[in-house]
Design brief:
Helices cover 47% and strands 14% of the residues. By secondary structure, the chain is of the alpha/beta class. The strands form two sheets. An eight-stranded mixed beta sheet has the order 1-8-7-3-4-5-6-2. Strands 9-10-11-12-13-14-15-16 form an eight-stranded parallel barrel, surrounded by five helices. Strand 12, helix 16 and strand 13 form a beta-alpha-beta unit.
Length: 594
């Protein structure tokens, strides 16, 4: 038996077996926490100012080392530099020195803790995870205050990188060719660690909170990116098992990658587009390498986070144009801002909303803040001349919102025309169907737009009234609940009757239990995480439309989730046993409960 097994969140799949190499450990538990005489407050404030200035200098030097192929790293480092230069964190820390007469390290730690409480209260998990960037910035300052150095010692041979956290700046100085896997104490599914690991095609786990107390340099470890765990000092039997599993998984991966560039076409000739969901230009290579036929969902929120000033039009034009040019002639669908004012705390201040998830967010926020919306719409239009760009509006619940959003787009078009700036006048406009209200008026919405994109993650949560991240009710998150299946079919049928395409994004698109049912509905395209594309395309090429339609018919006749789950599991497992052994790992370690 292994000396210890540590759980984590898998953000990149695979199996790695090697010796642990610790990049850094948390310094918060070892920070000096002291009260100081009042006359020493000025000196502590000077030390704090010096720490921030030194961190800016160091990070600026690292930024200059960023190679062209890691351009997106430079943008993330830029956001960290903006946080360091923003006076708010420094002022909050300075106030603690004045009010409590404490040393600079303790004051900064308390200011960061205050921010963590604020971020932790937010509904949106993605935004909560952005607090990680603030912690990385603060840790760099703390290292300067306590005299720590960020220099990396050489990696001997190949190793499994262990770290309290892994920042973009760290990765610039790492010998990535020697790394077999990443494991960090902090981080979530949208963290930079996962993006980098998927780019390098190595396993990665984040949120492994116990590694700092359980692992020392040189320990033999197994990183299980399929089940989300680390085995420390495994025995011979465990090693033999994992070497076998590693070989099987790599063989499976090799098989599906070889055919991933083939079209997603069923045995009887039905063609479906398989697209990717991404949020950074950095992820484009993963889309293309895994056989993605375009970007079905580009989340535009990242450019607005962790900064004191909102991005300008030129910055957005550059980002969207680069994406369109690289992907051309493949399609790129840009989702307009899906954030609320609670996510722009540094810009708008605190917004008192009891339930931000159902508050002023997404299209509602954009329609209220016309200047922000106009800047983004102009940028999308200007970028449209560089590729096959479409636009879609999130969280639509009625026709009025569609009319207002289209009017705002028309206004931006008029402005650009008057300024002599070209754009694609035929750019397609779509809406996301993710609220039950939108489902019920799908036939009306279909008359107003060029396409639908069904956002199943939110649709399931809003329809069933559950938060899937809440462990007390997560068991109720059922993609094949009769209400969900019927809702999706209703939207697909409404779209097709109106002659518009219907795409589906969210985890349902990469769930092998759900895909045959979606095919039975004759969905036009699926949009999913890039790493899941090869496996889904392989499944699609083995399907026949008649059997999919028959399965859908039987599912629609079922009255309970349990009966649907049994029916689908029996059918799918018989045909795709190999996919079901490994496919859970391709779904970001989420249980696929079909």
């Amino acid at each position: 038996m292994a000396r210890e097994v540590v759980s984590g969140i898998s953000v990149s799949t695979g199996i790695a077996i090697g010796k642990a190499y610790f990049l850094n450990r948390s310094i918060s538990s070892n920070l000096p926490r002291q009260t100081v005489p009042v006359h020493m407050n000025a000196g502590e404030k000077e030390r704090l100012q010096y720490g921030f200035e030194e961190a800016v200098s160091e990070l600026s030097a690292i930024r200059e080392k960023v190679p062209a192929e890691l351009k997106e790293h430079k943008l993330i480092i830029d956001s960290h530099l903006m946080m360091l230069k923003d006076p708010k964190l420094l002022k909050a820390s300075t106030k603690y020195i004045d009010d409590l007469c404490i040393n600079a390290e303790w004051a900064l730690d308390k200011a960061v803790n205050d921010l963590e409480k604020t971020f932790g209260a937010l509904e949106d998990k993605y935004i909560r995870e952005r607090m990680q960037d603030v912690c990385q910035v603060a840790q760099r300052v703390q290292a300067k205050l306590i005299g720590g150095e960020e220099h990396l010692r050489p990696i001997e041979g190949r190793a499994v990188l262990m770290a309290h956290d892994l920042s973009p700046a760290d990765t610039i100085e790492l010998e990535v060719n020697k790394l077999m896997a990443f494991v960090t104490t902090l981080g979530g599914k949208t963290s930079h660690t996962g993006i980098l690991a998927r780019t390098l095609n190595i396993p990665a786990l984040v949120g492994a909170e116990k590694i700092e107390s359980s692992v020392v340099d040189g320990d033999l470890v197994i990183v299980d990116g399929l089940a989300g765990k680390i085995l420390v000092d495994p025995d011979e039997e465990e090693l033999e098992h994992y070497y076998t599993l590693q070989t099987q998984f790599e063989d499976y991966q090799s098989t599906i990658i070889k055919s991933c560039q083939l079209p997603a076409e069923t045995e009887d000739g039905y063609r479906v587009q398989v697209l990717a969901n991404i949020e950074l230009v950095e992820e484009i290579s993963a889309v293309i390498d895994n056989g993605g036929e375009g970007v079905g969902l580009f989340r535009t929120e990242y450019a607005y986070l962790n900064r004191q000033e909102l991005p300008g039009e030129e910055e957005l034009v550059e980002k969207y144009s680069e994406l369109a040019e690289i992907m051309s002639p493949r399609k790129v669908v840009l989702r307009t801002l899906d954030l609320g004012a609670d996510k722009f705390m540094s810009y708008f201040g605190s917004l008192d909303e009891a339930n931000p998830a159902m508050g002023l967010r997404a299209i509602r926020f954009c329609l209220k803040h016309e200047d922000i919306f106009n800047t983004q719409l102009r940028a999308i239009l200007r970028a449209s001349v560089h590729g096959n760009i479409s636009i879609m509006f999130p969280m639509i619940c009625g026709l009025k919102e569609v009319h207002q959003a289209k009017a705002a787009l028309a206004k931006a078009q008029v402005e650009l025309t008057a300024e002599g700036i070209p754009f694609d006048e035929d750019m397609q406009v779509g809406v996301m169907i993710e609220l039950p209200a939108a489902v019920m008026i799908a036939e009306l919405l279909a008359q107003e737009v060029d396409f639908f994109s069904i956002g199943t993650n939110d649709l399931i949560q809003y329809s069933l009234g559950i938060d899937r991240t809440n462990p007390h009710v997560s068991y109720l998150y059922q993609p094949l609940h009769p209400a969900i299946v019927r809702s999706i079919k209703y939207v697909v049928d409404a779209g097709h009757r109106a002659g518009i395409g219907v795409s589906l994004c969210g985890e349902v698109a990469s769930d092998p239990y759900c895909v045959p049912i979606l095919m039975g509905m004759q969905i036009d395209s699926l949009s999913l995480t890039p790493q899941a594309i090869p496996g889904i395309k392989r499944i699609l090429r083995q399907l026949g439309m008649q059997e999919c339609k028959q399965l859908l018919k039987e599912v629609l006749q079922c009255r309970t989730v349990a009966k649907i789950n049994r029916l689908v599991t029996d059918n799918i497992y018989k045909k795709y046993p190999e996919e079901l052994i490994f496919f859970a790992s391709l779904l970001d370690n989420e249980e696929i409960t079909g």
